[in-house]
Amino acid sequence: MATETLTLSDAKQGQKLMVVKTIGDEITMQALRFGIGEGAELTVEKSIKGGPVIVVRNHLEIAIGRALAEAIEVKYV
Q1: Mean pLDDT, rounded, for 17-42
Q2: CB–CB of 72/8 below 8 Å?
Q3: Residue-range domain boundaries for the chain
Q4: Which residues of 26-37 are buried (b: 16+ CB within 10 A; e: fewer)?
Q5: What are the distances in angstroms from CA 38 to CA 15, 20, 29, 50?
Q6: What are the C-alpha distances in Å from 43 to residues 1, 26, 36, 61?
Q7: 3-state DSSP call for residue 37?
Q8: Any idea what the Cα angle at residue 6 is, between residues 54 and 18, rounded to 5°?
Q9: Tens digit of each residue's pLDDT (9 = 90 or more) over 31-57
Q10: How far apart are CA 49 and CA 30, in angstroms?
Q11: What is d(CA 58, CA 51) in angstroms, rounded to the nearest whole number?
């Protein structure tokens, strides 16, 4: 079975995802500040159209800006 990847900005509420990669050094550093590196598992709490994607990681809600979310590739867990 092929593993489908998408960007975090395309994820829908309730989806459980794993970070596959981040695009670019600056994006990687921003994501790591949130504790979101390759292999991190996230649950999408809410995706606000044109706004942030709110994810839960280790029982902590994190609002990820749309531009950052577009540069984070994820796959379904």
Answers
A1: 95
A2: yes
A3: 5-76
A4: ebbebbeebebe
A5: 17, 5, 12, 25
A6: 22, 23, 12, 9
A7: coil
A8: 65
A9: 999 999 999 999 999 999 999 999 999
A10: 21
A11: 22
Fold of 5-76: SH3 type barrels. (2.30.30)
For 25-28, the CB contacts below 8 A with 24+ separation are 27/68, 27/71, 27/72
Backbone angles phi, psi at 61, to 5 degrees: -80, 130
List b or e across 41-55, with b for residues whose CB sees 16 or more CB atoms inside 10 angstroms: ebbbeebeeeebbbb
**Amino acid identity, position 56:** V
Q: Residue 67 carries which side chain, given as an amino acid letter?
A: A
pTM over 0.85: yes
Residues whose CB falls within 8 Å of the CB of residue 10, separated by 6 or more in sequence, listed in order: none
Structure token digits, residue 1:
């079975």
